[in-house]
Specification:
The complex is a heterodimer of chains A (115) and B (112). Chain A has no helices and eleven strands. Chain A is mainly β and 115 residues long. In chain A, strands 2, 4, 5, 6, 9, 10 and 11 form a seven-stranded mixed beta sheet that branches. Chain A has a four-stranded antiparallel beta sheet with strand order 1-3-8-7, with no helix packed on it. The radius of gyration of chain B is 14 Å and the shape is globular. Chain B starts with a strand and ends with a strand. Classes of the chains: A mainly beta (115), B mainly beta (112).
Amino acid sequence: DTEVTQTPKHLVMGMTNKKSLKCEQHMGHRAMYWYKQKAKKPPELMFVYSYEKLSINESVPSRFSPECPNSSLLNLHLHALQPEDSALYLCASSQASANPWNEQFFGPGTRLTVL
Amino acid sequence: RKEVEQDPGPFNVPEGATVAFNCTYSNSASQSFFWYRQDCRKEPKLLMSVYSSGNEDGRFTAQLNRASQYISLLIRDSKLSDSATYLCVVNLSPGNTGKLIFGQGTTLQVKP
């Protein structure tokens, strides 16, 4: 099973709402990632988890809060977002080994609209 | 200067054409190199890794020049299904996770 799943596919939220994005993989990968992609732009790395511990935070605002409850799941908790946070949020996973050629597998993304 | 630079295109080519994409990267400590493909409103998918020795997969050939910090992708005998955005990607992380930096992407439209 070489698949990363994400829910929900689409999400519309107000600036005062709290919501969560979910990501799941069953490939035994121990590295998981959150990316943000604006329209007609490339994906930008937000967070990296390695063995369920946060290893990279690319200076993301605190209104985005990641969580890795176990080796298969990755969440992104959203609170007090701004309209400019509207984007496609992509989750990815890869093996966690000292091999820079490990492929990252991407999920289909959650398309977020903040009103 | 952007860390990974690509010509955004679009490249509009007829079926059967050969098309080449180029990419440059700024960080000489970059660990590994890839071409990803992204279809409209879909997620990126790995097309091929780019090794120093170059590699070929069917109609696709990728080359890396570490001295010039330059990566290329050649597509021969273009098909309609090759229409997509091609992302040049560099991995900056030497550790056990990847830190992928994506170029802006080059859009290819193959026409009948």
